[in-house]
Amino acid sequence: MTRHILILSLLFVAVFARAEQPESSVADLVEQLKSEDRDLRREAAYQLDRLGAKSAEAAPILSEALKDSDQQIWWWSASALAKIGPDAKVAIPILMSGLGGSGQKQYRFAYALGKIGPEAIPSILEGLASEDANVRAGAAQALGWMGGQGEPAISVLIDALADEDDQVNQKASKALGRIGQGAVGALTAALNNDRVRVRWGAARALGEIGPAAAPAAAALLKTTKDDDSDVRAVSMIALGSLDTTTVDVIPAITDAIQDEDVVVRRSAVEALVRSRPHSQRAVATLSELLNHERPEVVLTAVTALGRLGVLAGEALPALRELVDVEAEEVRKAVNMAIRRIKG
Amino acid sequence: MALPTLDAMNPTSMWAGPVEQPPLRMAFFMVPNGVHIPDWTPTGEGYDFGLPYILEPLASVKDDLLVLTGLTHDKGRANGDGAGDHARACSSFLTGAQPRKTHGADLRVGISVDQFAAQRVGQSTMFRSLELGCDPAHPAGNCDSGYSCAYSSCVSWGSPGMPMGKETNPRVVFDRLFFDQASQEDGRRNLLRRSILDFVAEDARDLKVRLGRGDQRKLDEYLTGVREIEQRIIRAERQRVEGRPQLPELEQPAGIPDDYGEHVRLIGDMMVAAFQCDLTRISSFMFANEGSNRSYHSIDVPEGHHSLSHHGGDAEKHAKIRKINRFHVDQFAYILNRLKAIKESDGSTLLDNCMIVYGSCISDGNAHNNENLPILLAGKGGGTLRVGRHLRFDEETPMTNLFVSMLDRMNVPVDRFGDSTGRLHGLT
């Protein structure tokens, strides 16, 4: 048996343990990337990507290679440019021209622009004004890849939250979330915007920022009462993500457990879980809600208690009173909640 | 013979000090030919999601896993290389790299995430990693439109040009894990037809009297588990001798009945035991080679899996595919439940200290698409994963972002892996 394993292992090693070919110089690879032979160009782009930042001098030819019709060549070139970073600014115009595509090309070109960093911001802002929604979406996404370096674009991204195209709106929201703490002030202000999609995008971005968005807590408490249920839902998630000791978010969450909209109720459960262990303070209120006249509220309260797990131990007696309740959905949820609380 | 971690092995326990945190383990399970996505993807999101037909067997561990929707393996796509989707997708599954289209010795894809971690943390355990499966790996030959068989039969790659073989024979895995080399060589056990446990019985009795009650129970459970595995292997070998359906050692043509489920569970049990004893912290497991045309008589699907996966929208074929998909998930649920049943030294479960990826490198078996892959992540990652949720990611989010997040948790942080663009948000 041992001999059998040894032979098999040796076979694998013998067949595959070939020494890697010695690396070519960047200059050689630059020449190779100009070849008419597709396979040679592919190999050059692949090797330049492997070299990463060391291939900075190849940035001009890599930029040209972004226009190659072969997917692997433009992909490796975009990846190499992203690794080169700010020194690849020569590629900005060609990368911008590729944002109008979709799928992988838009994704990778936006990523490379983001990694090039602030030098790309003026071009990206022009992209955000494009008539092509794909370009606007790609531009917003590129700003998100910059993280905190994207701060100069905050006000334009806030404007993009009003974009009628859902893709643009969502990517702008995500980008603001990735920019992080520097965007909290503008996002907090945007929670008062007249337009629903702006309030929605702002609340969602604050949720992505998480604990650092604590200064937005008071404004988010207001939007948990927004007329629009989607805004209430994302505000609830955002509140649950805050690490706040100055604003008590628990009453807002327990209110939302009684919301008329199912998505808001689900978001309240998520917020409670995110707020652990502070959300233990909600257990008494949730236990009272087990007697609520609306079955959907009872169901949500049961689910919330179960999701709090051992923190909801004091609710066990109240839950046990419901184990024989007629409604099957509630009964199942109660049994599940009891199991979760008992660990 | 290795032992599980007992309380008595933890020097701090007797002084009421902090209990050492159990190690984190990770494993990757791959099923071939995609899945029937409409019966895989939950409708709800976050905590509020139901388990669709294919995932129903996971009900008992629903709170211990994440369903990850929307992840993409761009490198599984043709990207100018034409046919060969199965081999290409398989080799990119754990590497996130585009394989070079060849069936010669000039293979090139990328190091796989399991091997990347194994090369960095594997020195802490007897085995750096385990590479397991139910179909043998083929190091050479043209298996898929010009792609080497190595691409379609290996998910673990030690380097861009080095596929790892995999072990498919439960007996070999068992001996490798539990039977020391010297004993194997002198052949005593086979000669005397005794159990491995007979050789350690005296030592176990001596040890037991020195252990607390909890440890005694743990030791009993462990030895019983090893005995059970051993007996199942002996049964399987006996079946073979008596001409019953054999465990597959070669790629099986469609229509041959077998005990495939037991094969999966048996090897899964050994992976669990290896994790339990900290013999290794990393494993990969291929339910079958990619493009497998195995038939599933035990669930009344005599047709080949790959043939069925090209369903062309046929409802009858859909029904059979989802049965196969559910069968695979059922075996996976068995393994997760085994992990969940094992208590660690700090009171957590073995599953709590695992990150187990399950999925397919192809989304729909007919379309051969590589976006929106069916992926699960089971285990709590040592408390770093907020489980019991269905998460949906943006289009084109690389699957390798998940690997970067997992490597962080394995204490092997990297900026990039394969075609990653960052970390996967929302896991915590």
Task: Explain how this protein is built.
The complex is a heterodimer of chains A (343) and B (428). Chain A is built from 21 helices and no strands. With 343 residues, chain A is an all-alpha fold. The relative contact order of chain A is 0.05. In chain B, helix 9 (260-276) runs parallel beside helix 11 (315-341). In chain B, a hairpin with a 2-residue loop joins strand 6 (157-159) and strand 7. Helix content of chain B is 34%, strand content 14%. Chain B has helices at 85-93, 113-121, 149-153, 170-178, 181-186, 188-192, 196-209, 213-241, 260-276, 305-309, 315-341, 399-409; strands spanning 25-30, 65-72, 130-133, 142-144, 147-148, 157-159, 162-163, 282-286, 295-296, 301-304, 354-359, 375-378, 389-398. At the A-B interface, helix 1, helix 5, helix 7 and helix 17 of A face strand 7, helix 4, helix 5 and strand 13 of B.
Share of helix of chain A, binned: 55-70%
Termini distance of chain B? Answer: 37 Å
The shape of chain B, in one word, is globular
SSE string of chain A: HHHHHHHHHHHHHHHHHHHHH
Assess the beta-strand content of chain B as a share of residues.
5-15%
**How would you characterize the largest beta sheet of chain A?**
none
The most extensive contact between chains is: A-B, 33 and 39 residues
Given as residue ranges, the uncertain stretches of chain B (5+ residues, pLDDT < 50) are 243-257
Q: Provide the CATH topology of chain B.
A: Alkaline Phosphatase, subunit A
CATH class of chain B: Alpha Beta
Q: How many strands of chain B?
A: 13
> What Rg of chain B do the Cα atoms give?
21 Å
Structural class of chain B: alpha/beta
The number of domains of chain B is 1
Mean pLDDT of chain B: 87
Shape of chain A: elongated
Strand order of the largest sheet of chain B: 3-8-1-11-12-2-13
Question: What's the pLDDT, averaged over the residues of chain A?
Answer: 92
